[in-house]
Sequence to fold (402 residues):
Amino acid sequence: MATITGAKVIITSPGRNFVTLKITTSDGVTGLGDATLNGRELAVAAYLRDHLVPLLIGRDPDRIEDMWQYLYKGAYWRRGPVTMTAIAAVDTALWDIKGKVAGMPVYDLLGGRARDGAMVYGHASGGSVAELLDDVARFRDLGYRAIRAQAAVPGSPGSYGVRHGAIYEPAATALPEEQLWSTEDYLDFAPSCLGQVREKFGFDFHLLHDVHHRLTPTEAGRLGRAFEELRLFWMEDPTPAELQESFRQIRRATTTPIAVGEVFNSIWDCQQLITERLIDYIRASVVHAGGITHLRRIFHLAELYQVRTGSHGATDLSPVSLSAAVHLDVTVPNFGVQEYMAHSPLTHEVFRTGYELRDGALYPSSAPGLGVELDEEAAARFPYEPKYLPVGRRTDGSVHDW
Ligand code: EZ4
Ligand code: CO
Fold:
């Protein structure tokens, strides 16, 4: 029997911060797991280094489900983003190792591909509607079949999702930036903004929009109704989702499809949303929802209720996460779409990836395991830099959901 002989936490900042767990076995096989929790990176690094790594040494790397149960139930303190991200890193690294030992890509360990590639959506944005329209045209020219559209709301400098430069990185400052937000201005602006996208480009592509948790259920219902004639692929995160039953109200108000889940960390965060069919797409991710083992369980529950998948894939999810997501995406029958924001060239100096973008879809590498390598010498050249996500404030100065 092989045993786990080493587990190393690698913190690196090639363009942005990433935490990665690298597990080594007595046979000399290594596996990688993403452990990045944007703006709270060192909490997960400490959880791994101080509390999980000592438990891993000497254990059997083959027993992935048992390891998951051991770390989840063994903690006594369940769930939460820090715990579940740390467990995800161990779980993902063990799937990577199992694939390498078997000589199979992870998608084959998961039952094999149901499709060759995973359709992705790209992020078009603009400081104005005119800029957004140019950016949508660029994504269409690049072959994307699904495009998320976000534009700056006039008078709301804290509008979500507007790229400045080549890469969108909201965690950009050493302390949280405070950004002003007006819900009223946004509700006036968003339908006409997306309406202009449909007017110019028509309906032959999927159009998505992220509300980023900023509305009440009443406001979200009204916005969803205003979007109906635009036939969105989805309206994402219309409200904060701690209150799962609030989605009943949004559902009653509109037929615009609803997607939610990027901040979820367990099946318990979406059980009611799925089983009452209060959403159309579940957006939980490998890294923040307990790894491949737990996300697969969420996706299988969703399949029973005709809820499709649409995993979070912003650049704060490392190339290891993205690769794991694509391996899972191509296997599940209820796949919907995969979010994709290309990582920066600096990030790829550290992470060598095998997945490929073609015709608006990501194709997993057929290399054994996840097909991602981390260059530790390159990683050491990019030391950790404290970076925080912004904080939203309403025009009266009070804190709002960012
Ligand atoms: O703001 O990942 O759909 N994508 C998103 C992301 C999140 C970031 C937070 O770290 O909403 O851009
Ligand atoms: Co989002």
Summary: The domain at 4-105 is CATH 3.30.390.10 (Enolase-like; domain 1). Residues 213 and 241 are 8 Å apart (CA to CA). The two ends are 48 Å apart (CA to CA). The chain has a mean pLDDT of 97.
